[in-house]
Design goal:
- With about 575 residues, this protein is α+β, with helices and mostly antiparallel strands.
- The protein has helices spanning about 100-105, 190-195, 345-360, 370-390, 395-400, 450-455, 460-465, 505, 510-520, 525-540; strands spanning about 105-110, 150, 230, 250, 290-295, 300-305, 315-320, 330-335, 405-415, 420-425, 430-435, 440, 475, 485-490, 495-500, 545-555.
- The strands form 4 sheets. Strands 5-6-16-15-11-12 form a 6-stranded antiparallel β-sheet.
- Strand 5 (about 290-295) and strand 6 (about 300-305) form a beta hairpin.
- The chain starts with about 100 loop residues before the first helix and ends in a 10-residue tail after the last strand.
Length: about 575
């Protein structure tokens, strides 16, 4: 008959914590029904910080229920306790008579068959089959195989071996249900319905078992431990019970590190946002164009934002090529964006690239350097004019009176015996010979101060001291009055270096002699070093404007020569 599940003994009432006595079903103080106390929840596996699961207590696999007419197998390991005095025979049951195979250890037949050749015993209400023959009648016939018949060769290593004598089985702590019946050995049909014959394929959904109900050797274990680096937050449901809410979690890979956030260069503590400003102190972070350096063969250039401006509106381009006769030629272009115009940084960059590309394309085709310089300035002007048409419509609505993008330009082309310069605006070019005498300024500014001096209305010192001195009268842009590219050609009689720069440098070395004093003596051999020195000279003087300078040695040397 069925029995009610026994509740765990409680020492006190779960409701009022009144002490209880053994056998109480209700609390004497509050009347709490002790039979409804929920069972203690099963322990969940402990999850380590590194994602691995520490060793847990062994949990027996949840096998599917045995088919009708079969008896569940005994546990793999007998529980600890006093040894059983012997097989138990239920009242009215015939004692099982071991056959010859049981004595020899070849096969162990019965409900409690074990891999070590242990003798079997009958459960209450189960009639054990009698031997089908005797020694006098001839060799006995083996009984029909049952669901838990195992070969001695499949026994667990260390518990027995083929041919070893049978040992008595331990007492079964979980006797099978009384209603289960074992088919007689002679009833082959019932044996086929209860379990498959040896060598037949296993039933779908049934776990392959060997001796003592353990997994068959060579088959994967049903409750294999999860691999390292994967954890299960909940224990998986029983096999065959459907899916569950468990899910594997992959441990983080220590080899994959998150990209470190940019740190402010000013306060060294704040994080830099997407706009380039520190979230802590608000300092603008250096941009790509804040400081640029380039060396191309014997030509070098350096550009710096300076100490007062929030961005660098200067740009440069340098390159080398060869004339049709194979002689080398060097090119340098420097542009200065007009701060009062819109997008001056884009204008200077577009003009420098367009002029440099035009020169490097025209010179190898045999175009005269002075003509090539004129065409390069026109190409730069078209590139800047194109920016005016690309202005977004919302910019015109918010600032309809803003000027179109504009910039100044100065360039130099140096061959083996010719020096050509071209310019528009107040960017300059200087000739500095190796012996420093005489140094010459090669360009004339398109500015208010230069016009005053040329007209004889003011002296040079007085004109450049006026606050209108740097107001330019010529520039590249869609709103320029009239584009008049200036070009000039020279044939120096000694080696030297050409300094191509913006007003951010020549404001601190205005005359040719002052510029010659600032240029290092080894500028022709180390142009990049000399350009850095000149930028440092302007920054030391105050750095009120963007500073850009390019150095081109004369005469031109083959590509690959220059500073080491």
């Amino acid at each position: 008959m069925s029995q009610m599940p026994q509740q765990a003994a409680l020492s006190k009432c779960p409701s009022c914590e009144e002490p209880l006595e053994s056998g109480d079903r209700f609390c004497g103080a509050c009347g709490y029904d002790l039979s409804v106390v929920p069972a203690r929840p099963a322990d969940e596996p402990t999850i380590a910080m590194n994602g691995t699961v520490p060793p847990q207590a062994a949990v027996p696999p949840a096998w599917p229920p045995p088919p009708a007419g079969a008896v569940p197998p005994r546990p793999a390991t007998p529980p600890p306790g006093p040894p059983s005095p012997g097989p138990y025979t239920a009242p009215g049951a015939h004692p099982a008579v071991p056959g010859p195979h049981a004595a020899s250890g070849g096969h162990a037949t019965g409900v409690g068959a074990s891999g070590d050749g242990a003798s079997h015993r009958a459960a209450p209400g189960v009639h054990a089959p009698a031997p089908s023959g005797s020694a006098a009648d001839g060799p006995p016939h083996p009984a029909a195989p049952h669901a838990h018949t195992a070969h001695a060769s499949n026994a667990t290593p260390g518990t027995g071996s083929p041919g070893a004598p049978a040992h008595p089985a331990a007492a079964d702590p979980h006797p099978p249900a009384p209603s289960a019946h074992t088919a007689p050995a002679g009833d082959a049909g019932s044996a086929d319905r209860s379990a498959p014959s040896p060598g037949a394929p296993a039933q779908a959904g049934a776990a392959p078992t060997g001796a003592r109900g353990a997994p068959v050797q060579g088959q994967p274990a049903a409750s294999a431990a999860p691999p390292a680096g994967v954890r299960l937050d909940r224990r998986a449901p029983a096999e065959g019970a459907g899916g569950g809410d468990d899910y594997p979690l992959q441990a983080p890979d220590p080899r994959v590190a998150a990209e470190p956030a940019a740190v402010c260069v000013a306060c060294r503590a704040g994080r830099v946002d997407d706009d380039g400003y520190c979230e802590n102190c608000g300092h603008a972070q250096p941009r790509e164009r804040d400081h640029m350096e380039q060396e191309c063969g014997p030509v070098a250039a350096v550009s710096d934002r300076g100490l007062r401006h929030h961005r660098n509106e200067d740009a440069f381009a340098v390159g080398t090529t060869a004339l049709p006769d194979g002689s080398p030629v060097s090119v340098a272009v420097v542009c200065d964006g007009v701060s009062s115009a819109t997008r001056p940084d884009e204008a200077s960059l577009a003009a420098s690239r367009a002029a440099n590309a035009s020169l490097l394309d025209a010179l190898p085709r045999g175009t005269h350097p002075q003509q090539a310089m004129h065409e390069a300035i026109l190409a730069a002007s078209e590139a800047v004019n194109a920016l005016a048409g690309e202005q977004p419509a919302e910019a015109d609505e918010h600032a309809p009176q803003q000027n179109a993008p504009a910039c100044t330009i100065v360039g130099a082309v140096v061959t083996a015996g010719l020096l050509v310069v071209g310019w528009v605006g107040d960017s300059r070019a200087y000739w500095i010979p190796v012996d420093r005498s005489p140094a010459v300024r090669l360009t004339e500014d398109d500015s208010w101060a230069a016009q005053m001096v040329a007209a004889g209305l003011m002296g040079e010192a007085e004109a450049y001291a006026d606050h209108r001195a740097h107001a330019i009268t010529g520039w590249l842009g869609a709103d320029a009055y009239e584009l008049e590219p200036h070009t000039a050609a020279f044939k120096p009689d000694r080696p030297g270096v050409v300094v191509v720069c913006t007003d951010g440098l020549w404001n601190y070395a205005e005359s040719a002699d002052e510029m010659a004093e600032a240029v290092p003596a080894d500028a022709a051999a180390r142009p990049l070093h000399a350009a850095r020195v000149l930028v440092g000279h302007a920054l030391d003087g105050g750095g009120h404007d963007n500073v850009t300078v390019a150095l081109v040695p004369f005469p031109a040397v083959p590509q690959g020569a220059g500073s080491a």
